[in-house]
């Protein structure tokens, strides 16, 4: 071994110096001491955990950790809250609260909930006293029931303010009074009933303040979100799954203590928010108002089977009455994490085709005339493995093909290639086509990586 | 004065210091490499193995679920800090259960996001603690979804390495000190014989030629001491020779002076009445004066040779003329002493570039010596030959010969051998000088009791054009 002489030198020196330099490098390995705070908190938590327990992290929301520092009793110094799974049984989730007294951590309270996973944890003032309550959702696993408990820490004891089963939940200001409300959507599979319940401050206590029955015939509820429905009004967006894979969105508004759904399906009319595939509501354009997504089919793809259709994500916002206003369209590809906004100037004279390549199909964005069925390429999105990119780049440069490198890090490179030459179109169409071509700057502005939850 | 001792110690010390410093540097590097290499290797192994495991078996997990899985399965004995970072470098969970949300932008993270195993040894930007961090990419659906980062503190490693290096420095200082002491001893062993030699030289300079330098070791200085002693012995010998010469020259000068003074006083007291006696006295005075002049001439010649002022007036000549001349000069003495003088000269001329008078002086001297040491009825032979551009003239006698011990010295100055004959002892020395000025050689062969042959070897002149003769 090539390091033999190093060992020999070290051993010789150790013997020569006659001192106890017996620490091998492996024995000297230890965590950085500079994170002393976190380390000491971790050690304190580990000390109070039942033997064989492991810390666990809540599934929701995304920004959550196994150990948090929150001032739960309003004394000005934060308490440590740690969540753990017990090894004794798979169906218990533990909550451990420690507080610091004269430099050392001591146990304040513990709670053991029934559940196999920790679905949700949030620390938020729900009672209006500016001291955060602890919202903990215990779950039984995939698609099983979940139960939310709201605790407050008062006089060294955990007090359960609320306990309620739920399918999805959302926390946020629904009434516009800067005080958070809790929205629960409860779905009973057996009785095929569903309801939305809103909890908020009522007479300085956390209490149910509104309730609305929802469609009980849905497959299930997948997401709830509280946000701005319009400039002036907040709303609760509830995503429901229907049938095999289709979905719809309910918008619930709290007005005068009553919940209402302005977009509710009217007998004999199309459900405005129906979509063949789920598309969750989100603020797609960053204007602070939540848009409702609806998957729409590109033109000229009627012959394709459902799964082969390159669905376009169309986003709408509530028009303030009983309808929706179109905001913008996106082409979103989950496999390649592409989010390409369809420019306004394309109107409805475009379509999307997916190439037949087996490993990474090329996405063609095309000019499309519904009457003549004439097509012409506007842009092609190529996904190329990182290792063959330099070769492809050379070829592109040789052909003088105009291209824009949209993503260069990671395993796959994404490049947008503009067409060369004039397509075979009649002069009127050609004029329209030319107006639709994109500059490189426009391409860069329209592309962004698809936001995928962690 | 910068003595050998000081220089030796300084050079020795400098060389050793340099060696020790270089070795110490190498040693520090080796220990540093060993400690950090081993620690990094261990961390890399653990990190890559775990990442491979997660990427292989937890493919369906999103990054957050992977992070949760990693936390829930972390060992309680885990010594490293484990962090799960998203693609922007944000910490979404660490092994203490915290989601700190800090952005880590050390090079290891960007390496990991390019699919490599990133290693970073350096200060943690947040805490200034020196750390070793190893980052590996976590994948989800074929894309890099985040980074798994192991961090350990490098401070204990630095501490250990410095500790060992400190011991190394201690040993190095010991070695330098030891070498210093050793160089003192070595310097003493070198310098002491030289000092002995110096003392002996001072003694010799004061005239004590019997002083001898002690030879301590069989080395260069020892050889020098031996040579020195040899030199002292030679000087002593020369000194004795010089003293002998002065006394013999004084004696030589006094003998004619005594007879001159004797005759002078006889002439003064006796008046000039008896012309016969007066004539005899004047003849003796004149003869003795010639002898004095001869001795003084020899001394002057010799001093000219000594100072290098002797100049030859070279001309093309026939050596046979010199030999004939000398033969003629010694004919009377040959008859008087009844010693046969034979001359064997080739018929062809013996051409040579030479100084006639000086060469004559050489042969006169040689024959004079030969007559001096050849008893009655002896034979003196002068032979001249030319072979290969060299003229060989040998003067042989049937005299008493020279002792083999004296032979190397007889051409030296003031050497007279054991004979009681008169003379300055300079004759042969002057001959040798003259012959050598002619680019020739003089050598002596002698057997005690049988005779002596002195050979003069001279370069022949190049033959000149025959046309000039006609």
Automatic annotation (TrEMBL), chain B:
Residues annotated as domain Histidine kinase: 248-462
Entry GO terms, CC: plasma membrane
Keyword Iron-sulfur among UniProt keywords: no
Presence of the UniProt keyword Magnesium in the record: no
Domain of life: Bacteria
Record-annotated HAMP domain positions: 188-240
UniProt GO molecular function: ATP binding; phosphorelay response regulator activity; phosphorelay sensor kinase activity; protein kinase activator activity
Xref: PROSITE patterns: HAMP, HIS_KIN
Annotated catalysed reactions: ATP + protein L-histidine = ADP + protein N-phospho-L-histidine
Membrane topology: Multi-pass membrane protein
EC number(s) recorded for this UniProt protein: 2.7.13.3
BP terms from Gene Ontology: osmosensory signaling via phosphorelay pathway
UniProt-annotated location(s): Cell membrane
Transmembrane spans: 9-31, 164-187
Keywords in alphabetical order: ATP-binding, Cell membrane, Kinase, Membrane, Nucleotide-binding, Phosphoprotein, Transferase, Transmembrane, Transmembrane helix, Two-component regulatory system
Protein name: histidine kinase
Upper lineage: Bacteria, Bacillati, Bacillota, Bacilli, Bacillales
């Amino acid at each position: 071994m090539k390091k033999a002489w190093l060992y020999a030198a070290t051993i010789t020196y150790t013997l020569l110096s006659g001192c106890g330099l017996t620490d091998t490098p492996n024995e000297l390995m230890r965590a950085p001491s500079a994170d002393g705070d976190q380390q000491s908190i971790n050690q304190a938590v580990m000390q109070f955990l039942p033997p064989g327990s492991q810390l666990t992290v809540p599934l929701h929301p995304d920004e959550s950790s196994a150990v948090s520092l929150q001032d739960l009793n309003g004394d000005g110094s934060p308490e440590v809250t740690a969540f753990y799974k017990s090894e004794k049984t798979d169906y218990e989730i533990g909550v451990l609260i420690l507080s610091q007294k004269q430099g050392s951590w001591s146990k304040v309270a513990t709670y053991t909930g029934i559940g196999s996973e920790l679905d949700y944890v949030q620390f938020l003032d729900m009672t209006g006293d500016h001291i955060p309550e602890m919202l903990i959702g215990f779950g039984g696993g995939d698609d099983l029931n979940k139960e939310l408990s709201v605790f407050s820490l008062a006089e060294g004891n955990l007090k359960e303010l609320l306990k309620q089963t739920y399918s999805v939940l959302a926390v946020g200001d629904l009434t516009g009074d800067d005080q958070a409300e809790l929205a629960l959507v409860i779905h009973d599979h057996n009785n095929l009933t569903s309801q939305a319940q809103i909890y908020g401050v009522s007479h300085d206590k956390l209490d149910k303040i509104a309730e609305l029955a929802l469609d009980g015939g849905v497959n299930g509820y997948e997401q709830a979100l509280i946000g701005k429905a319009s400039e002036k009004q907040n709303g609760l967006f509830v995503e429901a799954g229907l049938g095999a894979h289709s979905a719809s969105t309910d918008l619930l508004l709290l007005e005068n203590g009553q919940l209402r759904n302005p977009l509710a399906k009217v007998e004999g009319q199309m459900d405005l928010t129906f979509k063949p595939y789920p598309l969750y509501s989100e603020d797609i354009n960053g204007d602070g108002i939540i848009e409702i997504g609806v998957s729409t089919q590109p033109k000229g793809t009627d012959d394709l089977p459902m799964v082969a259709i390159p669905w376009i994500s169309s986003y709408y916002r509530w028009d303030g009455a009983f309808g929706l206003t179109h905001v913008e369209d996106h082409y979103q590809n989950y496999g390649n994490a592409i989010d390409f906004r369809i420019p306004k100037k394309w109107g409805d004279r475009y379509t999307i085709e997916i190439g037949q390549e087996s490993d990474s199909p090329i996405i063609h964005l095309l000019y499309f005339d519904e009457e003549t069925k004439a097509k012409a390429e506007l842009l092609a999105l190529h996904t190329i493995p990182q290792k063959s990119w330099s070769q492809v780049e050379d070829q592109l440069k040789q052909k003088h093909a105009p291209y824009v490198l949209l993503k260069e890090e990671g395993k796959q490179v994404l490049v947008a290639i503009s067409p060369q030459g004039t397509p075979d179109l009649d002069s009127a169409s050609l004029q329209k086509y030319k107006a639709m071509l994109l500059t490189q700057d426009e391409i860069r502005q329209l592309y962004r990586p698809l936001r995928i939850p962690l | 004065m910068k003595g050998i001792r000081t220089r030796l110690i300084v050079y020795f010390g400098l060389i050793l210091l340099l060696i020790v410093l270089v070795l110490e540097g190498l040693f520090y590097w080796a220990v540093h490499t060993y400690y950090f290499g081993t620690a990094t290797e261990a961390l890399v192994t653990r990190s890559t193995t775990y990442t491979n495991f997660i990427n292989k078996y937890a493919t369906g997990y999103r990054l957050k679920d992977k992070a949760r899985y990693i936390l829930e399965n972390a060992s309680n004995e885990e010594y490293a800090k484990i962090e799960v970072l998203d693609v922007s470098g944000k910490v979404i969970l660490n092994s203490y259960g915290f989601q700190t949300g800090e952005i880590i932008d050390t090079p290891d993270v960007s390496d990991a996001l390019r699919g490599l195993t990133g290693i970073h040894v350096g200060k943690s930007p947040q805490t200034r603690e020196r750390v070793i961090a190893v980052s590996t990419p976590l994948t989800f659906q074929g894309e890099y979804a985040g980074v798994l980062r192991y961090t350990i503190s490098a401070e204990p490693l630095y501490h250990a390495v410095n500790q060992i290096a400190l011991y190394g420095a201690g040993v190095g200082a010991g070695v330098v000190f030891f070498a210093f002491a050793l160089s003192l001893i070595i310097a003493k062993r070198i310098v002491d014989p030289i000092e002995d030699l110096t003392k002996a030289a001072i003694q010799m300079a004061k005239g004590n030629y019997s002083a001898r330098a002690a030879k301590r070791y069989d080395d260069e200085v020892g050889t020098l001491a031996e040579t020195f002693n040899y030199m002292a012995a030679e000087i002593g010998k020369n000194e004795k020779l010089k003293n002998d010469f002065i006394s013999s020259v004084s004696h030589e000068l006094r003998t004619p002076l005594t007879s001159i003074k004797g005759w002078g006083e006889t002439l003064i007291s006796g008046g000039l009445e008896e012309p016969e006696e007066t004539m005899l006295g004047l003849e003796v005075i004149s003869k003795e004066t010639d002898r004095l002049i001869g001795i003084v001439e020899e001394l002057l010649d010799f001093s000219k040779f000594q100072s290098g002022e002797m100049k030859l007036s070279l001309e093309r000549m026939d050596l046979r003329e010199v030999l004939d001349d000398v033969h003629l000069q010694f004919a009377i003495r040959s008859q008087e002493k009844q010693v046969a003088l034979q001359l064997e000269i080739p018929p062809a001329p013996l051409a040579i570039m030479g100084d006639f008078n000086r060469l004559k002086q050489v042969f006169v001297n040689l024959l004079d010596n030969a007559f001096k040491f050849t008893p009655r009825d002896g034979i003196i032979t002068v032979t001249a030959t030319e072979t290969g551009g060299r003229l060989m003239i040998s003067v042989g006698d049937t005299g008493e010969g020279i002792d083999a011990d004296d032979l190397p010295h007889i051409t030296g100055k003031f050497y007279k051998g054991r004979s009681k004959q008169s003379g300055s002892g300079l004759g042969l020395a002057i001959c040798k000088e003259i012959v050598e000025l002619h680019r020739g050689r003089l050598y002596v062969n002698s057997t005690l009791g049988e005779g002596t042959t002195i050979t003069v070897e001279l370069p022949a002149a190049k033959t000149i054009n025959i046309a000039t003769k006609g």
